[in-house]
TrEMBL record:
GO molecular function: dioxygenase activity
Tree of life domain: Bacteria
UniProt xrefs under Pfam families: Glyoxalase (PF00903)
Keyword line: Dioxygenase, Oxidoreductase
Native species: Christiangramia crocea
Domain VOC stretches: 7-132, 154-273
Protein name, UniProt field: Ring-cleaving dioxygenase
Length: 312
């Protein structure tokens, strides 16, 4: 168990307009902005984190919003659908809400015995709400319009599109400890039994699917969760033993990370639970003001001036 992955930690995607992105995730979907910071490698760009009340690993979707970003395109070697867990019986509420708010969405369907409502965010990022087969005990963040009985609980599954599943499946099973569950058509489900939730990766195999273009409305990387830095470094050894390249440990202020590109082309990250988001602000304050890493604290004024205005 120690050296295994504990499901998903976060997923990071690229958006266009920051205000539109913020409004969609906090108002339409009712998630909490748990952290407003900047891209550590490009401090003139925001980095938004949306999740549950405290930003529990497995609930966190993060964005780099770039105004006037060019439109990306889904393809092979990418995460192409994010599946959120919602309470049983809530999909009708969400369908009505999406109709009222002009959110692009599709028919409620069934996949792997679970009802799901696929939809897109304003940048065209593909997501779905899923009434999970298992009982998801997580408590979703509540807002005035999205109450606990319908609130999004966190991730359930992520879908990776690939030309060939084999090499990616090998990483999931042999390095990460996932097990193959079942297939439906060209979609195969993998699951870890180390955690109850955010435990699923679905591999969609399409041999002639062209490579994706990673820009607006597409996912940048998928981060898997480990307990602590010791486990992180043990995972690093396992990835190296597979003959893959992997970064050194990187301090992301709210977690420690490693990045590597899995053989199918998807950028994977492994991230720790520690220290979490309530380090530079209290749980009550999470997301309410711009947080900067130490190296940018001296130039806060310039950074604030360069960032687009955001009405909360
Ligand atoms: Zn990340």
């Amino acid at each position: 168990m120690e050296n295994k992955i504990l499901g998903l930690h976060h997923i990071t995607a690229i958006a266009g307009d920051a205000q539109r992105n913020y409004d969609f995730y906090t108002k339409t979907l009712g998630l909490r902005m748990v952290k407003k910071t900047v891209n550590f490698d490009d401090p003139q760009t925001y980095h938004f984190y949306f999740g549950d009340e405290v930003g529990t690993p497995g609930s966190i979707l993060t964005f780099f919003p770039w105004t006037n970003v060019r439109q990306g395109k889904d393809g092979s070697g990418m995460a192409t659908e994010i599946g959120y867990s919602v309470p049983k019986g809530s999909l009708e509420f969400w369908k009505d809400r999406f109709e009222e708010k002009n959110v692009r969405h599709y028919q409620i369907t069934e996949q792997f015995g679970e009802r799901k409502l696929p939809f897109q965010d304003p940048d065209g990022l593909k997501l779905s709400l899923i009434e999970t087969e298992h009982k998801d005990e997580r408590k979703g963040f509540e807002t005035a319009e999205v109450k606990a009985n319908v609130a999004i609980k966190g991730f359930h599954a992520v879908t990776l599109s690939l030309n060939n599943n084999a090499a990616t499946a090998e990483i999931l099973t042999e390095v990460f400890g996932y097990k193959k569950v079942k297939s439906e058509g060209n979609l195969t489900r993998y699951k870890t039994d180390t955690v109850e939730n955010a435990a699923i990766v679905d591999l969609l195999e399409i041999p002639d699917l062209p490579r994706g273009l990673n820009a607006g409305g597409t996912n940048h990387h998928v981060a898997f969760r480990v307990k602590d830095e010791e486990t992180l470094m043990a995972m690093r050894e396992k990835v190296l033993k597979k003959g893959l390249q992997i970064t050194e440990k990187i301090n992301r202020d709210y977690f420690f990370s490693l990045y590597f590109r899995e053989p199918g082309g998807v950028l994977f990250e492994i991230a720790t639970d520690n220290p979490g988001f309530a380090t530079d602000e209290t749980v009550e304050e999470l997301g309410s003001s711009l947080q900067l890493p130490d190296r940018y604290k001296g130039v806060r004024e310039q950074i604030e001036k360069a960032l687009p205005e955001l009405k909360q």
